[in-house]
Specification:
The structure is a single chain. By secondary structure, the chain is an alpha/beta fold. The chain has 11 helices and 13 strands. The protein has an 8-stranded parallel beta sheet, sandwiched between helices. A 5-stranded mixed beta sheet has the order 1-4-3-5-2. Strand 7, helix 7 and strand 8 form a beta-alpha-beta unit. The N and C termini lie far apart (53 Å).
Length: 266
Amino acid sequence: MLITSRNNTIINNVSKLKMKKYRDELSLFVAEGEKLFAEAINSGLVPKYVFVSESSQDKYKSYTEEYNSYTVTREVYDKITNEKAPQGILGVFSSCDNIIYEDNQKSFNKINELFNSVSNGYIIIENMQDTGNVGTVIRTALAFGIDAVICVGCADLYNSKTLRAAMGALFKMKIAVCNDIKTAVELSRKKCKNIYAAALHKDSISIKEADFKSPCAVMIGNEGRGLSETAMSLCDKSVIIPISENSESLNAGVAAAIFMDYMRGR
């Protein structure tokens, strides 16, 4: 089916998914671009709708033949895309089962299930607002075999920039979204020997001195403000990554990656 009107009801509804309010309300998100769309499919997700631009319909014929799809004009595609250089394919998917939000007792019980076993530990990110950093942490966690990522007050996971940064990891990594840092730490303590805060403190120890042999949880804070006072009060130790005197600090995503490298055993 070809859609030529930018005011088409389906197009209007898909366009709304650019806003978090509607993604949350409808439990839907958009995976756009050839690689991200393929990653979603390869992870077992089934699109509710597939939209392909007229100029790309031959390229993505295998997808349009298998799934509920629409071909749209360039003008219509421009209304639903978030990309500056769109690749001509966009899928609408239901929210991922591996991402659990602490909304009620039922969802809290599901989050508890994430913590039944642990090998390398957990990464807790608190108030991380840069979508690229959030996506990078999730992507790196999957690559390094981290058991779960726990998000507290962070950027929206289904934001298009987060999705691009995380790539297919968002569809595979175990992710818990908790309402507060106390809950995140409480859950982590069930399986982790130590809760480390990645922060500079008068009692901080070097990352080289921390015990990563046993599963642990590492908390990474906001890009500018770091971890909250509450988070700091809940940790067992604060840990720093030694850097050159000529440098002020590391990017939050980079710091998280270094900690995860130690957590998996170097």
